[in-house]
Inverse folding.
């Protein structure tokens, strides 16, 4: 486990985002709404995942001018997405001085075998994962934050729950094994033995573990926190609802106070009868259309 | 044993709780005015000061926190230091006004300007200082005692019962700063 100063700084910023909500925004105006609502960071992207899903075609890194416009408008950290394996988009985002890069399955992958060699960058990376092996492979490549993938743009929490349950269960299982059993586990998870040993010893990932992909309501956000997420990413859930400012505020409240059902109830009540984004039944989607299946 | 609260609205409150526990405190997370009333001292962690401000305001915690600070010690790191300052710039925003300093948010720049430094501190000797999108204290009143500086700017200061750091002692494996705060709480 490499814990040099640079990697500690990368994880350090992820620590600062804990207990908060990171919101997808597509314009400086949306970024301001997110910051006012209490977002701890924003993710700048050209289209929210539900629009990417609807439009089809190739989804790429957002225009530099748009990301720069968002960085100029808010004082909180700004993240941006690069395609899986597209290290040149990542270099561009680093040159732009974004605070975090999301090597994201929401965009169309640029490389079907290799992810970005994230250790070669000074800017920190977050990557998605569906299971423990995927999370540890991304960490071994240098990711300083993991987010469970869920299914972006679905407004359906079921995939986020599946991935969080899977990672938590696989971590718990490692903690009860003896050391001589860990080598086979490394093989099974296709992950480096050093990281398998770390999880077996600590029962958690060596970097913060956030949740993404499907949060549409305050109760969804609180659920993911209760299941072990340390922060919640909300993509389409805010700006595809019919009252973004209200949903954003209420989701922030529910994330902070997830341990207190009365406060979560108040957060749910704050959105009144405003409608959350329209959800998708992910079980009816063909496997090829699931963004979560991108990444290797 | 001193009972220390860690404001747990957002940020790296778990790391502070871990450091305080190692330094010998009884620790609990504080999210409400009732939880605040039960503790002898409070840590306001790093995180996003704007997020904490919104929640303090909406959950009617701002005044209770200010009143707490008028009677009991608070240790603020990074965002916590910003919340406790008398004046905040870049951009201007409300603060508790508990320590007579002016801070500039994101004083070093963005995440690429975050850094780990070694600083000399008269009270503890050399300290590791982890700065993450850190603020800079660019003026301090006469009642403020500078305990350590980096690059010419104060980074660890105290005024009366309160302690402020623009860096993150909770991210280092060294609990001397937390132990120092516990001594302040003990009086």
């Amino acid at each position: 486990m490499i814990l040099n100063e640079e990697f500690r700084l990368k994880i350090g910023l992820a620590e600062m985002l804990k207990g908060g909500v990171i919101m997808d925004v597509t314009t400086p105006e949306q970024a301001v709404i997110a910051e006012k609502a209490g977002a701890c960071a924003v993710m700048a992207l050209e289209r929210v995942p539900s629009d990417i899903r609807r439009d089809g075609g190739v989804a790429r890194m957002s225009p530099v001018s748009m990301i720069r416009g968002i960085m100029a408008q808010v004082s909180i950290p700004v993240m941006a997405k690069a395609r899986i394996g597209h290290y040149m988009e990542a270099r561009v985002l680093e040159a732009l001085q974004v605070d975090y890069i999301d090597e994201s399955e929401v965009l169309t992958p640029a490389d079907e075998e290799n992810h970005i060699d994230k250790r070669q960058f000074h800017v920190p990376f977050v990557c998605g994962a569906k299971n423990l092996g995927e999370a540890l492979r991304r960490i071994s490549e240098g990711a300083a934050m993991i987010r469970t993938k869920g299914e972006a743009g679905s407004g359906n929490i079921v995939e986020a729950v599946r991935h969080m349950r899977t990672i938590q269960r696989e971590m718990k299982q490692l903690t009860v094994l003896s050391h001589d059993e860990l080598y086979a586990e490394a093989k099974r998870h296709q992950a480096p033995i050093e990281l398998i040993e770390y999880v077996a010893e600590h029962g958690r990932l060596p970097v913060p573990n956030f949740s993404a992909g499907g949060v549409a309501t305050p109760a969804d956000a609180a659920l993911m926190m209760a299941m072990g997420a340390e922060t919640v990413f909300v993509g389409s859930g805010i700006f595809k609802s019919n009252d973004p400012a209200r949903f954003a505020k209420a989701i922030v409240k529910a994330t902070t106070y997830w341990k207190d059902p009365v406060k979560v109830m108040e957060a749910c009540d704050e959105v009144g009868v405003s409608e959350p984004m329209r959800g998708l039944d992910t079980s009816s989607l063909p496997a090829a259309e699931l963004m979560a299946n991108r990444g290797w | 044993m001193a009972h220390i609260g860690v404001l747990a609205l957002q940020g790296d409150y778990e790391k502070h709780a871990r450091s305080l526990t190692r330094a010998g405190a009884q620790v609990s997370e504080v999210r409400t005015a009732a939880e605040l009333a039960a503790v002898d001292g409070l840590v306001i962690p790093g995180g996003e000061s704007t997020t904490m401000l919104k929640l303090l305001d909406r959950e009617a915690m701002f005044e209770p926190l200010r009143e707490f600070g008028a009677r009991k010690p608070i240790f603020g790191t990074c965002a916590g230091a910003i919340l406790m300052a008398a004046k905040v710039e870049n951009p201007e925003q409300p603060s508790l006004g508990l320590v007579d300093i002016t801070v500039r948010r994101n004083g070093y720049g963005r995440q690429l300007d975050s850094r780990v430094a070694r600083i000399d501190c008269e009270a503890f000797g050399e300290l590791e200082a982890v700065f993450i999108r850190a603020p800079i204290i660019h003026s301090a009143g006469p009642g403020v005692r500078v305990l350590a500086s980096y690059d010419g700017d104060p980074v660890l200061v105290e005024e009366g019962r309160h302690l402020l750091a623009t860096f993150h002692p909770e991210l280092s494996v060294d609990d001397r700063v937390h132990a120092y705060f516990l001594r302040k709480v003990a009086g």
User: Anything to note?
Assistant: Chain A touches chain B through 35 residues (CB under 8 Å).
